[in-house]
Amino acid sequence: MQSASDILGAEASVIARLVQSREISPVEVIAVTLGAIARLDPLLNAFCTLASEAALSAARALEARILAGKAVGPLAGVPIGIKDLIFAKGLRTTFGSRLYADFIPEHDDIAVERLRAADAIVIGKTNACEFGLGGFGHNPLFPTTRNPWNRDLTPGGSSAGSAAAVAAGLCPLALGSDGGGSVRLPAAFTAIVGIKPSMGRIPLWPGCRDARWPGASGWESLEHLGPLARSVDDAALMLKVMCGPDVRDRHSLPDEGVDWRGASHRPLPASLRVAFCPSWGKVRVDPEVGRIVAAAALRFERDLGCIVEERAAPLNDLIETARALVALETDLTGLRRLAAGRESDLSPGVRALLRFPWKAEDFTDAVTARKHAVDAMARFMQEFDLIITPSVPTTAFAIDRNGPSSIDGAAVADDAWNPALYPANLTGQPAISIPAGWTEAGLPVGLQIIGRRLQDSLLISAAAAFERVQLWAGRRPPVSVWQDQTPRH
């Protein structure tokens, strides 16, 4: 039997195969994983709540089934982190808020339910900004999450802990949520893969559905769950497990027979039409980020045989629309009631959301603008199979900030500096961020690929094809299991 310490930091598909074939014990996998978290996570604060005993118990039960010759799932023994905005039965789930500091759900979110059924082992909850309102990794309740590429910088957010944990090798997979880029942004800042599938691919419940927990539920037409992984194939494996309809989510899509993992190995069709949008809206792009993404666009043409055309982005900056829709889909009444007398416990962004004097016209204008955006994007996608663009127009910023303050010398608002991410939430299209390269300072740069709605399979094929021709494989962050020199007992 192989030693689990030999595969610490291995991909999920490798771990599952070795566990299924009895070449490695799932109990040892979890024990070694928890040991790595104990050594390294004090440097990163990726996890806010660990499930050590429950994870070891699940691993022992899985091992007993394997030894009894029983069938096990496709993620057998794979350690996984769950974002702290996502319900996990019996495991403290705080949404990054003091208002829910002791909340323990009675149900798994559907995605967590399916991951457990596939024999993935939940090792803990990963840190996030309060209620997901921001692109950073701090909240009023837990220590700030740090970027494993540079601990003075943020990993992005709001799926901050999920991205940091995967990038550092503390787990091969983590579940994030994306209501305006919160899977793709931290993936870009930490050099991993983050996918927001088409709206409805992964059902949502009780998150975004059950009104008993104001602030914890909402954003019904914006929120998507998605995988964070170190390879497109691992992300596709996770999607295979999580996707499919459920009666508890009225927006969930029927099973169309998408071959998620097959798509990650499938060659790209010849002469795909790709729009390269070097910027989005009025926000400038850091020159070094722009050069790296332009080089990635050239690879699509030179190495992958695509027909790449540089075009202006199909949508203008829609931050006002996104802000109003977030407010519209937040239970303002319930959250205000819950927070009454405890406003000082809230992060500034949440206080601002609750204090703003929203009008009906703010919401109807946003709904109208969204309709126009969906129509404009649909017309644009009649010309192109894919859009490629910088995931984020800058690199990671300081951990004590809510945004970069300026990009290429131009000031930006704390919630208005990543305009290429939230349009796919407005339209429901699938989008992915994958590593495009590194700056001279050693900071990751992400490439976003956007596909037509429901064409997730092509999106995954394109991302995997780019992954195969790119030259960043094997590059690891300074704070990670690959660089860990801490003595092991």
Shape: globular
Nearest-angstrom radius of gyration? 21 Å
Strand content: 5-15%
* Count of individual beta strands: 13
Number of domains: 1
The CATH homologous superfamily is termed Amidase signature (AS) domain
Name of the level-1 CATH class: Alpha Beta
Low-confidence stretches: none
C-alpha termini separation: 19 Å
What do we call the CATH topology? Amidase signature (AS) enzymes
Q: Which strand order does the major sheet show?
A: 1-3-2-4-6-5-12-13-9-7-8
Count up the helices.
15
Task: Report what the structure shows.
The structure is a single chain. The chain has a single domain, classed as Amidase signature (AS) enzymes. It is α/β, with parallel strands linked by helices. It has helices at residues 12-20, 26-44, 52-67, 110-117, 160-167, 184-190, 232-242, 260-265, 287-302, 319-328, 332-339, 348-355, 360-381, 423-427, 456-469, and strands at 47-50, 79-83, 121-126, 173-178, 193-196, 224-229, 273-276, 307-310, 386-390, 406-407, 410-411, 431-438, 444-451. It has an eleven-stranded mixed beta sheet with strand order 1-3-2-4-6-5-12-13-9-7-8, with helices on both faces. It has a two-stranded antiparallel sheet with strand order 10-11. 34% of the residues lie in helices and 13% in strands. Strand 2 (79-83), helix 4 (110-117) and strand 3 form a beta-alpha-beta unit. The protein is globular, with a radius of gyration of 21 Å.
